[in-house]
Amino acid sequence: MASFFAGVLAALIEFLARIITAVRAIWDGVGPIQAQRIYFANHTSNGDFVLIWTVLPPSLRRRTRPVAAADYWLSSGLKRFVGREVFDAVLIERDPTHRQTDPVSQMAAALDGGSSLILFPEGTRNTGEEHLLPFKTGLYHLARHRPAVDLVPVWIENLNRVMPKGEVIPIPLLCTVRFGEAMRLSDGETRDDFLARCRAALLILSEKGPVT
Amino acid sequence: MSPPVEFWQLLAGVLAVLIFASLIAGILSRRAGPDGADPVIENLVARIRSWWAMVALLTLAMVFGRAGVVGLFALLSFAALREFLTLTAKSRGDHYALVGAFFVVLPMQYYLIWIDWYGLYSIFIPVYAFLFLPIVAVLRGNVENFLTRVSETQWALMICVFAASHVPALLSLRIPGFEGKSILLIAFLVVVVQGSDVLQYVFGKLFGRRKIAPVLSPSKTWEGFLGGVLSASLLGAALWWMTPFAPWQAFVIALLIAVMGFFGGLVMSAIKRDKGVKDWGHLIAGHGGFVDRLDSVVFSAPIFFHVVRYFWPPV
């Protein structure tokens, strides 16, 4: 029963995402193929991972789990159901003082289970004027623990205008999701170098232009 | 209200043209060879495929009569507005105004068309939306580029909603001696204006030499314009039997529609250049976005509507 409702909700969420954003995937460096990946993207809206999830072919979608904040997704019954049953999110505790498990080992465990991940390395929603916030270190630690998994930069264009922070009703505008070339942690690469390289890869994608 | 017999005769003609076009495109792609990927031919094949889908959709809507046509154009307006505002909407201060444009103004305009309230639907957007949306925007207190933002939203509504809604509005014209057939006015408008686009494309590709507006649109030529517009006008004259018009009247009206359609394409091209994009969207394979396909329709529909309403006054 729960999985039936999860299926209905998933279809509804995808339908709404497509009506509102007519989202289009541009595979600009990697293809939509069955491969284990860590998709890392810019984060401006709660709908970000929904768009990535929507443009993935169903066979990839089933094996791709978003990494999301436990405090948000466990805050109500419906969110809990959507987060766990529809998106199968890896829920991590953002506040270190409340942590019982380490987020990086949670993500590594999900990778070991064969899943791909969707990750927002800025750590929080970017609601300011800044194009892309500095990255938190989680992406580096994950890459160090699982160096054989491809990291794929993903730039989500326009969703911040569809639903700016604090607004309830979205305005329908076209969005694109651009997937860039896969990258990995190099031998001897320092944390800061690696994060700068990842951030630069995302920024390059963002400059490739939006809709057409 | 099932479509009159003339509708099915016209549809048979359109299908014959589509089959012919598909055959030509098939021959051209075969001649190009399996790996001779000529982008022009590929685009042609994609365009023709999309035409099949568009003809099927429009036919389906017309078979459902008034509800089908009003519903279809409401959805087309939604898709067009979504594309238009993607290129303009930038400020958070406009959020409520844009929510209003999508979820109040657009449904309201089509509701007024549906209940056939000519006195209000012909002024609702230019008067009420024009005055109230800036009020909604100004309440947010953000004055940066205010006039630009307000005008762009206003223009988006005029083009994507107001003008487009004049296509289903044709259903409300009850011309004496033409009762129950007003859907044929829509069929006439769509065939002439889209026929003109296609014929301009064909004449341009076959004979195009002199560019007509190199800055605005590198693909538009004098040969395409003249050949396309004149042949579309002749096509309109040849369709006089499904209209309330005499053949010469059908020719003049078709000429007007085709010329307006041409300039519609030019104006919308200028906006695309200004915003630095090639197409409005990506949802119609080979054509671009909805606005790319509708640009000529929206410029001709209100003029066609008012010309018919003036010279063939409804009872």
Automatic annotation (TrEMBL), chain A:
GO terms for biological process: phosphatidic acid biosynthetic process. SMART domains: PlsC. Pfam families: Acyltransferase. InterPro entries: Plipid/glycerol_acylTrfase. Residues 37-159 form the Phospholipid/glycerol acyltransferase domain. Keywords: Acyltransferase, Transferase. GO terms for molecular function: 1-acylglycerol-3-phosphate O-acyltransferase activity. This is 1-acyl-sn-glycerol-3-phosphate acyltransferase. It comes from Palleronia caenipelagi.
UniProtKB/TrEMBL annotation, chain B:
GO terms for biological process: peptidoglycan-based cell wall biogenesis. The keyword Transmembrane applies. The chain crosses the membrane at residues 7-30, 50-76, 96-114, 120-143, 155-176, 182-203, 224-242, 248-271. Keywords: Membrane, Nucleotidyltransferase, Transferase, Transmembrane, Transmembrane helix. GO terms for cellular component: plasma membrane. One of its GO terms (molecular function) is nucleotidyltransferase activity. This is Phosphatidate cytidylyltransferase. It comes from Palleronia caenipelagi. The lineage of its organism: Bacteria, Pseudomonadati, Pseudomonadota, Alphaproteobacteria, Rhodobacterales.
